[in-house]
Amino acid sequence: MAGGPSLLDSLFQRSLEDLIKGLRLYVGDESTFISKAVDEIRREIKSTDQQTKATALQKLTYLHSIHGVDMSWAAFHAIELSSSQSFNFKRIAYLAASLSFDPSTTDVILLLTHQLRKDLSSPNPHEVSLALHTLYFISTPDLARDLTPEVFTLLNSNKGSTRKKAIAIILRLFELYPDAVRVCFKRLVENLENSDPAIVSAVVGVFCELASREPKSYLPLAPEFYKILVDSRNNWLLIKVLKIFVKLAPLEPRLGKKLVEPICDHLRRTGAKSLSFECVRTILSSFSEYDSAVKLSVEKIREFLNDDDPNLKYLGLQALTIVAPKHLWAVMENKDFVIKSLSDADANIKLEALQLVMAMVSEDNMAEICRVLINYALKSDPEFCNEILECILLTCSRNVYEIIVDFDWYVSLLGEMSRILHCQKGEEIENQLVDIGMRVKDARPELVRVGRDLLIDPALLGNPFIHPILSAAAWVSGEYVRFSKNPLEIMEALLQPRTSLLPPSIKAVYIQSAFKVLTFYLHYAISTEEVISSASQGVADIMHGAVQENSQFVRAGLVAENDSDDGGLNHRMLHRPVRDVSVESFEDMAVAHDWLSSTSFKGEPITEESIVNILNLVETTLGPLAGSHEVEILERSRNVLGLVELVREELPGYLVKREEDNDKGQRKTHEMIKLIAEAFSEELGPVSASSQERVPIPEGMVLNQSLNDLDAICGDFELHIPTSFSLGRSISSEKDDVTMSDRQGKEEFEPTESTSLLAEHRKRHGLYYLQSQKKESINDEYPPANDLKTGENADDKADDLIKLTEQSLFPKKKTNQAKPRPVVVKLDDGDGPFIPIKKVDSKDDLISGAVRDVLFGDEATASSSRTKKSDKSSSKRRQKDKLDIDKSSGPKEDSKFMENSELENANLRRSKRHSRGKEKKHRSNAKDRDEHEEGDKQKVSHHHGKHKSRQRAEGALTLAAQSPVIPDFLL
């Protein structure tokens, strides 16, 4: 009492009600009042008076729950109060323990073991309920091990409420102490035969949780669950049983034939929407091969869809989502409702309808559905708009674009999606643009066209969500610049002044692409002049007689080239080095002469003046970036400026061959440009995202080892430094390469919105653009960013979207494609990410192993050589188990049974750790115990008549032990 509060303090102690009123008065500064209240509680809780201690603990619990006050320091006081004889004080103590005790940090939690054991054995059901509730929240492996006997006894309690709570807590004990399965599992199964539906519902709930983790172990209990499915009329109980059968159905094919009819009976008879939906989901997910059941389920789904309750509409759409993969006709029958749901006010309904629309996509109707969805995206809120875009991107890219036939259309769609006002899928569109460029060669010309339209629109540079797309457009335009109609236009777009709005990482991509375009432009100029010179000299000196002899062959080659859609151009001539085309063959000379006469830039031919202009543009734009603090920008800009300096050294006369040139007819700058062009011309292919993870680490390699001594290790090896950038093939050795004049056709002089935007910027920032002789109009205002024009009658057509959608969803007869589907490069080891196999939780594995041991017995693991011996001992073991269960009718018998069970469990654990020889010794000890138990058989024989339900459950377990599969009554 020396350190505790005085009697006067106890008399004037504030109650919980006073504390709450005081908190409400301190509106401005509650922390001061709370700190003072905690100081008072620290003094009061030390009192020996239980009333004072209980009030203090009650106030502290309130502050902990509402205001998060730490009460870990009061754990011992809660344990002290739990031993009170007053139920109210015990309730306060257990409430404080369940709210504040942490099994991992509360050190004094084991001091509560004795009190919990005492209260679990109390005749007062309220005290038992408090102890069970507290045990669930504060249970540790040690508590679960020590209190399993008491919970085992409560599984057979005469009080229904107590038995239900004991059943509910048994799952927690299994998780913390898997050996409890060997003790309590049989009695848990016995409760499936109980006449109280609430108790059966609690048991089925436990099995529903267990089966969701490892369903195979509970397959022998299917007859018990089937009986409940047929006989029970409790809707919630039936729902849990159906959830169990959903897990068991894939493991046993015979279940479908036996279960479909009872489930259909419940579906026809019940008026409960919850049970009806669960029956529908069970049939569609596990028994979809039964057509009659599926048709009945689809009828019920239609009732859900026509209901006024939005929750039921959502469930109906969700059920259609389940049935769509195997029975698409069910979705087509309800397509009208699905289409209307895209405009529903409920966001969840719209999302489910969107999933169903994408489930109906095929090669025939893909373009129409995507067009309709794009129009819906234009009218929708930003969130649903991006959901539509994400669904389109995921569906079209599924299985490496297997559903895409026309990649030109899809690339154009990606460009159109980029201009939608609320588009926030920049990274996804970026990845697909780059991925298509590396996988599909035939789509590269269209990729360059779409990339060019995106790059020359300065309004897009101000939208941060579009920056990743612009990065992809810049990379595509630089990597595949040979497919461009006008590289100078792309160069101007890459170097326009508003690129300063881009992040440094994307701006670095712009600079690198400008490097590629400049290299291509200079290499094209060199190849043009030198090929013309070589071809002219070859024709004058050599081909006068030889071409006549081979004129038929040459004409055939020219006709073949001119008949193509590429304007009569030889695909192999664009990037080909001069040494390869000058004297390689007479035919190539003739073709080269014809090619060069038709591939010059129309309107602005390549001259030394045009080269000077483009070099000035590069220096003006990238000169200030040579001192940037960003490493990538600094390095790449200096690379481009270095190339510009090399070219300027040989101006003028850059395009004219001089006598002082070297023997190869190439000057230093020409050779350097050709080497760089060869390096850039090497084709990039797709790489698996998980390729690095698949590379095994060599044995003995230490990844964190310092490499400072690498020079000493590799001192004996001389690294070969190649003098050429050639990577194994000529720059344009492939047949399907297209020159930049290949696409000069009807699109060559078509005025577009993007060209007008470029013309506008050309006038605003003339310093940053190349000289042009064309007259351009001046516009004073920038167009709005992402201004997507859908046509003059876009508003009028918006009302016809549903009608258009209905037409697009009808399956059409597949028409013959004008051109075959392009080849899509796929990886041998798969294109998806590497997903490691998920390991089963060790606790779940232990629980499942214990369940199999209980259900199957020793026969499940015994070898064939000991079959007869195990059959003889199984009868004795079953008799012993029955006797043990009968002995457990009272508390004293339960304690004795638990002691024997603990010994048996200890032997079982030791048997797993030792060798087979020690297992034999263990079985001999078990046999001795069996004989000892048989000696006491007559003492408890009078209990057999009172436990018929227990014997039936034991018979089910015995049947399961004899065979690990379901009995034939399910056939």
UniProtKB/TrEMBL annotation:
Location, primary (coarse class): membrane
GO CC annotation: AP-3 adaptor complex; endosome membrane; Golgi apparatus
Function: Part of the AP-3 complex, an adaptor-related complex which seems to be clathrin-associated. The complex is associated with the Golgi region as well as more peripheral structures. It facilitates the budding of vesicles from the Golgi membrane and may be directly involved in trafficking to the vacuole. It also function in maintaining the identity of lytic vacuoles and in regulating the transition between storage and lytic vacuoles.
Entry keyword set: Golgi apparatus, Membrane, Protein transport, Repeat, Transport
Protein name: AP-3 complex subunit delta
An annotated GO BP: protein targeting to vacuole
UniProt superkingdom: Eukaryota
The species this protein was found in: Nicotiana tabacum (Common tobacco)
Chain intervals for the UniProt region annotation (Disordered): 736-756, 774-794, 811-832, 860-971
Binding partners and assembly: Adaptor protein complex 3 (AP-3) is a heterotetramer.
Family: Belongs to the adaptor complexes large subunit family.
Biased composition, class Basic residues, residue ranges: 909-924, 940-950
Gene that encodes the chain: LOC107804890
Bias kind Basic and acidic residues: ranges: 736-749, 881-899, 925-939
Matching InterPro entries: AP3_complex_dsu (IPR017105), ARM-like (IPR011989), ARM-type_fold (IPR016024), Clathrin/coatomer_adapt-like_N (IPR002553)
